[in-house]
Amino acid sequence: MSLIAIDLDGTLLNHRNEISEENIKAIQYAQERGFEVVISTGRAYFDVRKICEKAGLSTFVIGTNGATIHSKDEKRISAAAIDKNHVLSILRWLDERNYYYEVFTEKAIYTLKKGREDFYNEIKSMSSADLDADMKELVEMAERQFDQFGYVLVENYHDILKQEEDFYNILACSFDKKKLEEGWAQFKEFDELLVVSSADHNIEITSKNASKGIALEKLVSLTNCSLDQAMAIGDSNNDLSMLQKVGYSVAMGNAKDEIKNVCTATTLKNDENGVAHAIYQYLENLVIQK
Ligand code: CA
């Protein structure tokens, strides 16, 4: 059996954060032919479930950058949380430097009330300013980020630490490139942590036992699929771990060159139903090989 792993933002979702009819049809077409489809994303599981329900899709879900795996019948089959002491030191460090951050658990996305207001105002002031194309795209991406489902606003980071939940992913944002690089440098020094990025304005921190690639490996062994035959589609740095593990790696047309360069193929953009295009191409290639 073969498997198709698909990233959400910038990949399966269009710029309106929707899954197009064409993409839905292509996924269902693959599933009807016996392919396992996996949504693999930095988003939290409850958020992904909402998106899939709206689209009428039922798939495996690798959530919070590989920290969780859920089955099609909504059971959690794997989880890798960040050690609580590390959560404390990460949040303290981010807080002292005034980063905007979000903390992902099984139930919610925790963020500071004040931090969210500040970040929102920053986005709004930039939206009306005269920006170059790259920066404009970045601001639009940040705006779409607020579209996530499940936010819980708290007063300070101690309110987050008080929650008796596992913490899966911590996302920090800034439009200041230097500031983000400092965050990246700070946390990559931890042997127990993994740092990736899903957009130019963020860094995302998980346990070192959580990545899209590690989760995909687990899922492949659970479903008797083969990595050599599997396809993964993505657009960002946090997709690299899964793109590098499969036989068919596909970069979105809107992906950066560093992603395209490591993939076996490039498909159309997310606003051009790139996922559907990649799925049909992949199925056709498999038929030709047989
Ligand atoms: Ca993405």
Give me some keywords for this one.
alpha/beta; Hypothetical Protein, Haloacid Dehalogenase-like Hydrolase, Chain: A, domain 2; 2 domains; eight-stranded mixed sheet; six-stranded mixed sheet; 42% helix; binds calcium ion
Describe the structure in your own words.
The protein is of the alpha/beta class and 290 residues long. It has an 8-stranded mixed β-sheet with strand order 5-4-3-2-1-12-13-14, sandwiched between helices. Strands 8-7-6-9-11-10 form a 6-stranded mixed β-sheet, with helices on both faces. Strand 4 and strand 5 form a beta hairpin. Helix 2 packs parallel to helix 12 and helix 5 runs antiparallel to helix 6. The two termini are 14 Å apart. The mean pLDDT is 93. It binds calcium ion. Calcium ion binds next to helix 1. The site of calcium ion (CA) has 8 residues, from helix 1.
Shape: globular
**SSE string, helices as H and strands as E:** EHHEHEEEHEEHHEHEHEEHEHEHEH
Spatial ordering of strands, largest sheet: 5-4-3-2-1-12-13-14
The percent of residues in helical segments reads 40-55%
Instruction: Using the coordinates above, name the CATH class of the largest domain.
Output: Alpha Beta
Provide the CATH superfamily of the largest domain.
HAD superfamily/HAD-like
